[in-house]
Amino acid sequence: MTLTKAMIIDNIQNELKYSKKESTDVIEALLEIMKKSMENGEDVLISGFGKFCVKDKKKRRGRNPATGDDMMLDPRRVVTFKCSGKLRDKVNKKQP
Fold first, then answer.
1. Distances in Å between the alpha carbon of 60 and those of 18, 55, 65?
2. Which of 9, 34, 45, 57 is deepest in the core (most CB within 10 A)?
3. Closest Cα partner for 54 from 46, 64, 45?
């Protein structure tokens, strides 16, 4: 099952005893801060969780999968995620 934004909001509401509106506002504000930082080319590091990195991709040659024709792909930015060691250990159940 996928954890959705609505489920995160519900968890915050239940665990921290916030109202639904307060929980929604907290999550929306957090996501907006992260989006603006990455939009400006800044990485986002969350200790114990991981790092969202903005990387520049250069113009490169690609192929249209429908026709098989060669084409040039425009330069662009991509976001990558590298999880922290703590998160990796939890996912792999290597808890002390």
1. 48, 15, 15
2. 9
3. 45
